[in-house]
Amino acid sequence: MKHSIAICTLAALCATWTSTAGAAGLGERVAAMSEKGRRAFMAVLVNQSGFKCPTVQRAFHQGESDGTAGTSTFWNASCGPRADYAIVFHNDKGNSTRVVKCDQAQFHGASAPCFKKFAADSRPTAERAGGSAVASLSRP
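The structure corresponding to this sequence follows.
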């Protein structure tokens, strides 16, 4: 039964991915997803990065950051008590994505704590710091 649910979830994510293919970066495609699809996709990313997240209970678009490698989009995911993560979608050819615990997000370019919007006039500079889980995603 769990296997069937996982296949259905992945099929829904693939359908969402295809329907939003016109958007520039992965962070923008995530924004175009339904809330249910976005939460499911974010849970997959968090789990693939080595953290435990049975379900994303809250998804939050924190803002964008301009860095030397281009613009990055920051999303936050809450998977339960003391299980909050920042997901950084880099707008690069490989759609590289970094998942870090929220207490580490500011070391990766976030200008505000998780679940707080970035100030419009103070966009942070994205930094590529080591020591966190990184997942590279590319379209099939």
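The chain has three helices and five strands.
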